[in-house]
Write a structure and sequence with these properties.
With about 350 residues, the protein is α+β, with helices and mostly antiparallel strands. Helix content is about 65%, strand content about 15%. The strands form two sheets. Strands 2-4-5-7-6 form a five-stranded mixed beta sheet. It has a two-stranded antiparallel sheet with strand order 1-3.
Length: about 350
């Protein structure tokens, strides 16, 4: 209904323009007004009908000649209908002669008017379609990111699960009580993991609680060799980070800290606030000459880096550093989630 009123206003405006053009010819206001309303109403109806068709067929920029052809054809048809109807509304013979002589000019005027209507509507539908395409593209990219994030998280679980099951299998015969304890701890860990599958961010306190379940299982596997230290203030524990982010980082630290060294190993986890970001560092002993060390940092850290990039669109949120026999992994988690483009 609103678009119809716009077209009526359009017809009234151009009727006024035509009246101003015809009045200097010394014809009465009534005659010129009838003429202008008749012709511009026909042009507006034609333009509206053609513009409605643009909803279902959008010429490309290269097919712009079609708009020229449509507008010229419609202007010609409107002029023919006008020449047929003008005698029914106007009985002034002299004016009818003038109207007949002005038909070529009316075709040009009508062509301009209809073409303008078509171009305005084509541009509106074109920009609307482009906006919808961008929205569909953004939605598709979001689904793809979510699918990749889910895949990255799922790829980490089997690796840890298989190691735990192998350890349970080894403990069943020699230490059945520890095997039962480990099964319970594994169950609690996997249950907590499932609960967090649909949560994008959690507090550091929640993440550390889940990490404790993972470390309890690893301590059964490695016994007294594995020691952990966690440093985090109460204020820091309220900050947010992606759910289940620390487990692959700590798993990487255990892998390269225990497999490449002998004796007791201490994994240090430290969290602090820096400006508007949460900084978490995980430190482990590192033997550069060990076979495991030569294999690189493994899938765990690369998957964490990819996940952070998908969430925050920044490639600089994970850093590693080796100093003497200590290897440190540091992740930076921005806290201004409202400004994160991929959250």
């Amino acid at each position: 209904m609103r678009i119809m009123w716009l077209y009526l206003a359009w017809a009234a405006f151009w009727s006024g323009v035509l009246v101003l053009v015809l009045l200097p010819a010394n014809y009465s206001l009534t005659l010129t007004l009838k003429d202008a309303l008749l012709y511009n109403t026909l042009l507006t109806i034609a333009g509206y009908a053609a513009s409605t068709g643009l909803r279902y067929y959008q010429p490309t920029l290269r097919q712009g000649i079609l708009l020229l052809a449509w507008s010229l054809g419609l202007a010609g048809i409107c002029t023919l209908i006008y020449s047929f109807l003008v005698g029914r509304f106007i009985d002034d013979v002299q004016y009818l002669d003038f109207a007949g002589d002005s038909l070529p000019m009316r075709v040009v005027f009508g062509w301009f008017l209809v073409l303008l209507l078509l171009l305005i509507n084509w541009f509106w539908y074109y920009t609307k379609e482009q906006r919808l395409m961008e929205e569909r593209k953004a939605a598709t990219e979001k689904l793809a990111r979510e699918a990749e994030l889910f895949t990255l998280r799922q790829q980490l679980q089997p690796h840890f699960l298989f190691n735990s099951l192998n350890s349970i299998s080894a403990l069943i015969g020699a230490r059945p009580e520890q095997a039962r304890t480990m099964i319970q701890q594994l169950s609690d860990f996997l249950r907590g993991t499932l609960r967090k599958e649909n949560k994008q961010q959690v507090s550091l306190a929640e993440e550390l609680k889940q990490l404790e379940l993972y470390l309890a299982i690893e301590k059964v596997r490695f016994g007294h060799r594995l020691q952990t230290t966690v440093e985090a203030t109460d204020e820091t524990k309220e900050l947010k980070l992606p759910a289940l982010l620390l487990q692959p980082i700590v798993e990487n630290a255990i892998k390269f800290g225990l497999y490449g060294t002998t004796g007791d190993t201490t994994i240090t986890i430290k969290a602090e606030q820096s400006g508007n970001s949460l900084l978490i560092s995980v430190q482990n002993p590192f033997d550069a000459d060990a076979a495991q060390a030569k294999e690189g940092t493994g899938f765990g850290l690369s998957s964490v880096q990819r996940r952070l990039y998908l969430l925050f669109a920044r490639p600089d949120l994970l850093h590693t550093n080796q100093h003497q026999n200590q290897f440190t992994t540091t992740v930076t988690i921005p806290q201004n989630y409202d400004q994160v483009p991929y959250n």
